[in-house]
Amino acid sequence: MVESPRVLSVQSHVVSGYVGNKSAVFPMQLLGFEVDAINSVQFSNHTGYKKVKGQILTEKDLSDLLEGLSENQLDHYTHLLTGYIGSVSFLNKISSVVKQLRDRNPNLIYVCDPVMGDNGKLYVPKELIPVYKNFILPLATIITPNLFEMELLTDTKITNEDDVWNAIDILHKKGCETVVISSAELAEESNLCIFASCRKDTMVNKLSMKIKKLPLSFTGTGDLFASLFLSWMYKSKGNLKEALENTIASLQAVLKRTVDSIEGKEINPRNVELKLIQSKRDIEEPSIIYRASIID
Q1: CA-to-CA dists, residue 132 to 102, 115, 140, 204, 276, angstroms
Q2: pLDDT for 249-264, tens place per residue?
Q3: Which of 4, 43, 49, 233 has fewest C-beta within 10 Å?
Q4: Which residues form the Pyridoxamine kinase/Phosphomethylpyrimidine kinase domain (predicted)?
Q5: Model pTM score
């Protein structure tokens, strides 16, 4: 048997609901990945509810966990996935984690979802921004920001498609091989836009997609997107178009099922939790509706 790819996923965890590792681990497992999860925080529920209780992992806790894995020779991974991280010291530690894992496997693929905010609002300390820009970006193989996070990472204002490609080029120059803007609402567009670019040596592959906006806001979609994209980039052997189309197909199916489940119900955080488990078949066998356009 061929050994399964192994992912170390470092992001938030909730007891109830689907964000962070609760949104990311299940899809990767369905798609054939062994997944080890480290929870940067453990909360009762996501922060959209009226109250949140829980614990925050420290950089010392992270070091202890990695030390235990290393001493038992359990730190050989094909992929590292990082999502929500709430402190500068913890994010700084991620840099050394990447280097440690690459010592064990020089071909490690690091997928970074730089969870910092959305719609113009930060929900992490602003001190994390320079850490991402100066230390994390040069280590990342794939990065999946939303539009607001892209502006923070590149110090640019993005209002049109030309701005998008200019910002993506900045991240390529920082060392990121593949850049995907997972969601963008541009002024001249009525649709939700997705942009992806892969640069290897002198070869650049650029894609865009437009999808219909849904009438609700969801939590955990970025975490789901990053995990699906990681999985399909591996399964497609780096085929950017196939990976993006399969990712969006599964994501849209989950969101549509979630919207359908709310019909006749109150719109509240509990009812808008992603219908992830019910979408098992859509994750394993995505039905492609939206196609990506190749940008010359």
Answers
A1: 19, 10, 10, 24, 29
A2: 999 999 999 999 998 8
A3: 4
A4: 91-260
A5: 0.95
Stretch (H or E) spanning 198? strand 192-200
Per-residue pLDDT of 141-197, as tens digits, reads: 999 999 999 999 999 999 999 999 999 999 999 999 999 999 888 866 678 999 999
Query: Which residues does 207 contact at the CB level (< 8 Å), separation at least 6?
Result: 195, 196, 197, 240, 241, 244, 292, 293, 294, 295
Q: CB neighbours (10 Å) of residue 218?
A: 19
Look up the CATH number of domain 6-194+218-238.
3.40.1190.20
Amino acid letter, 228: L
Give the 3-state secondary structure of residue 292: coil
Contact 20, 276 (CB under 8 A): no
Largest CA distance in the chain: 54
pLDDT at 65: 97
Domain ranges of the chain: 6-194+218-238
